[in-house]
Amino acid sequence: MILFKRIADLHKYLDAQRQTGKKIGFVPTMGALHEGHLSLVRQSKSCTDLTLCSIFVNPTQFNAPRDFEKYPVSTEQDITLLVSAGCDLLFLPAVAEIYPEGQRPAVHYDLGMLESVLEGKFRPGHFQGVCQVVHRLLDLVRPDDLFLGQKDYQQCMVITRLIEQTGYREKTRVHICPTLREEDGLAMSSRNRRLDKTERATAKAIYQSLCFIKNQLRPGELAELTETAGKQLTEKGFRVDYIEIADAASLAPCPSWDGKQKLVALAAAFLGEVRLIDNLPLN
Ligand code: AMP
Questions:
Q1: Strand 263-271 and strand 274-281: pairing?
Q2: In the chain, beta strands by DSSP E
Q3: Pocket test for ligand 1, best of 29, 54, 68 (most atoms within 8 A of CB)
Q4: Which domains does the chain have, with CATH numbers?
Q5: Positions in the chain short of pLDDT 50
Q6: 150-185 pLDDT, tens per residue?
Q7: Could you tell me the distance, in angstroms and rounded to a whole number, from the CA of residue 258 to the centre of ligand 1?
Q8: Residue nearest to atom 7 of ligand 1 (CA)
Q9: Cα–Cα distance for residue pair 135/33, rounded to 1 Å
Q10: CA 216/CA 38 separation, integer angstroms
Q11: What is the pLDDT of residue 209?
Q12: How far apart are CA 4 and CA 24, in angstroms?
């Protein structure tokens, strides 16, 4: 695996590869890698010629400074994992390399309703920061294929929208890859490392509550179902931001169900200081 820290070096290398007809797959991450990330690398390897992973903890997408400060970093271990997964290239830039003109956003991205529901509502400015860094990375890498995890369901929708609004609609294909879970159902996440033993044992309840919603789903009003799921989490010690059912294609709130509309259940909840998110397509 070749490691790049400088944009100029990465550019030069990718341009040369592109000229030989190679298709470039891109897996952007914030590091503290786990099997979920590696599954994206493997997916990229299976359908492109060259897989580039980036590790960059993007300061502009953290709305809570403490969350940024406490974000786990394990670069040495990440490199070992990427090598073992057969990743070809790693981009590991410093903040000044990504934001040479400072971190203030130059543009405001029109994300419509996505910015005011669920994660958008509870993390103001988060998706603007995500768009800022992903747009920058797309401009640097110009990938043929981009690999994202369904674990971050709303983020997948935001980035798809970003791609539709920028010049990448024709250039870059988006692949949304399934969520990898621990044996007890907890969605793999870098943040899981911050859970203590008791919290880690409790954390599986998020997935269980999403499964509860899936199993109990019936046509009609949905408020009681999500309230019950929320109570299950609160009783176990979670501080729940939301557990909701939404339209799977738009994330519009879905107060009642006609038995046909495609739905997804999404949750975000704190255990101690650690905020966990998960989702489950329902039908
Ligand atoms: P992150 O490093 O958390 O920003 O994630 C980088 C990429 O990995 C994003 O596209 C995530 O959606 C994806 N990802 C994170 N966790 C998982 C998981 N458990 N399964 C599949 N993909 C994941």
A1: antiparallel
A2: 2-4, 24-29, 50-55, 89-91, 145-149, 173-177, 220-221, 239-247, 256-257, 263-271, 274-281
A3: 29
A4: 2-177 (3.40.50.620), 190-281 (3.30.1300.10)
A5: none
A6: 999 999 999 999 999 998 989 999 999 999 999 999
A7: 32
A8: 29
A9: 22
A10: 33
A11: 98
A12: 15
Nearest CA to ligand 1 atom 17: 36
- The reported pLDDT for the residue numbered 167 is 87
Cβ within 8 Å of residue 57, ≥6 positions away: 30, 31, 68, 71, 73
Q: Return the ∠ at Cα 149 (arms to 112 and 22), rounded to 5°.
A: 105
Size of the chain in residues: 283
Contacts of 192 (CB under 8 A, 6+ apart): 34, 182, 186, 200, 203, 274, 276
**How many C-alpha atoms does 121 have within 13 Å on its Cβ side?**
13
Radius of gyration of the chain (CA): 19
Q: Distance between CA atoms of 219 and 154, rounded to whole angstroms? A: 24
Q: How many alpha carbons lie under 13 Å from residue 127 in its C-beta half-sphere?
A: 26
- Residue owning tokens 């250039």: 171
pLDDT value for 270: 98
Atom of ligand 1 nearest to the CA of 32: 2
Ligand 1, residues at Cβ distance < 6 Å: 29-30, 36-37, 39-40, 148-149, 151-152, 177, 179-180, 187-190
